[in-house]
UniProtKB/TrEMBL annotation:
Modified residues annotated as 4-aspartylphosphate in this record: 54
Protein name: Response regulator
Biological processes, Gene Ontology terms: phosphorelay signal transduction system
The keyword Transcription is assigned to this record: yes
UniProt KW keywords: DNA-binding, Phosphoprotein, Transcription, Transcription regulation
Cross-referenced Pfam families: GGDEF_2, HTH_18, Response_reg
Annotated ranges, domain Response regulatory: 2-119
Residue ranges of every copy of the HTH araC/xylS-type domain listed in the record: 440-538
Lineage: Bacteria, Bacillati, Bacillota, Bacilli, Bacillales
Gene3D superfamilies attached to this UniProt entry: 3.40.50.2300, Homeodomain-like (1.10.10.60)
Keyword DNA-binding: yes
Organism: Paenibacillus silvestris
Amino acid sequence: MKVLLVDDEKHVRDAIRLLVNWQQHGIDTILEAPDGESATALIAQHHPEIIMTDMMMPIMNGVKLLEWLHANAPDAKTIVISGHDDFSLLRHTLKYGGTDYILKPIDPGQLNEALDKAIQAWTKDEELRQTNRELNIEMNTIKPMYWDKLLSGIIAEPSTYESAAEQLDKELHLTRSINECRVAILSLDTMERSVKNKFSQNMDLLLFSLTNICNEFLTTDGRGYAFRHWHSETEIVLLLWKDLLGAEAFLEKINEGMRTALHTRVDFGIGRLHAFPADVTLSYQEARDALRKRNLKARDTWIHSMLNPAKSPQPALTFTQYEEKMNLAIRSGSTQQIEEVIQMWMDNVKQSEVITLEQLDLWWREYTVMKRRWVQQFFSGISEDKVKEMLTDDPTSVIVPLDEQGILSLSQWQQELTRSIVHMSKMLLENQHKDKNVIFEISEYLQNHYHEDVTLQEIASRFFLSREYISRKFKQEFEVNLSDYLGQIRMSKAKVLLRNPHLRISQVAEMVGYQDEKYFSKVFKKLEGITPNEYRKTSNSI
């Protein structure tokens, strides 16, 4: 802590230094001033917590210093040390926040007691100030979220305005006399990728920055208020209620602020003028439609309105028209074939004069459904959780690849689409390789354990696969079902054993996995056309 000693007599300041155990009180800095004016300069520079001052001094006396402290350093605690037993001076000390009035000559015990009392008072006040600071920080953190939720609620359901009208008037100056509004929307979906990449690890910070920039302009003269849409992770909504006819020009001004602060501009969609609060939802929907229906292949303006709609797109080009070609390309495992199919798709896309966010979103949903269908088709038998895991490589919503001018970059989109489909093809090839390996492992197991009571269920448990999956894959690989394959192995081994005249038929049957000699003979004749005994006679006679 710091203490400032103010007295025009140096010997008094020296005496105070000697009479106090500063270390015991936690004081590590002692400042001195010969008058009130010098004291104010030191207080402004060093901000001492405790000030001990005389009352009768030249230039600026203690009375004036107390008044100055009350106005400019109200947190500091003041102890008056005076040679005048004057009630008016005592009253002035109390009026302007002094904690004690000590008469000269100074009593050491009284001085140390007064200092201890002042320090305790300052500490108690500082704890309260710290608590208030923490509360203010918490409130400043919560308040934007509160307004986000409240205003998003009004956008969705205008009737909720009445319950919040008083707060909106008090906090945002949105008075009951305001009966018209316009809504504008800023969406990260149509923002340059380079900017989003800078904030890729903290998109909340980007949204916070954009919202603050908007409100720096909007709240200065009470034009409106910007907030994050509670039901969208990418939207900032601007509710405008003043100078509505000049709203487009004002959004241009905000955009210049964006360019200065973040070195980028953004697209705004803006709705028409409507009654507030009754039709605020309608204005919001118009703003959203204007943004979603802007032509991503052209840069005519940054402010998009339904009053100036983009040209209507040509008859819809659907992604599903290319599903079969893409399916075959994926199965081929050829990157070149995949690139050729995607090039065919992109060539058709390039012929469109107009591509909107709405159209991109439709293509994205088609592609997402196709990918899910491919996964379920290529990797049949896998769980829903595994399907979701395999689809996590792609984002959950459409990413709009824009260049530095905010125009749709078809080359970036083509690269991203190629990467995604090549990745799918690689997963399929890896899975096929894995399937083939495990089927051959099962085949090897049968070769080594043909003499045991091997069942499909036992193999399924051993290799952690379903019986249906093993049966299907085994038939695909060997063109025969598993039980027949096992039977062929057993008959092949049995023919070798039957050539040994010292082994009975029943022994041979048991050695190749049949406990019942009659059943063994029946299976043998079915596969070989003759009985085991006939085979033995024939083979031994050769």
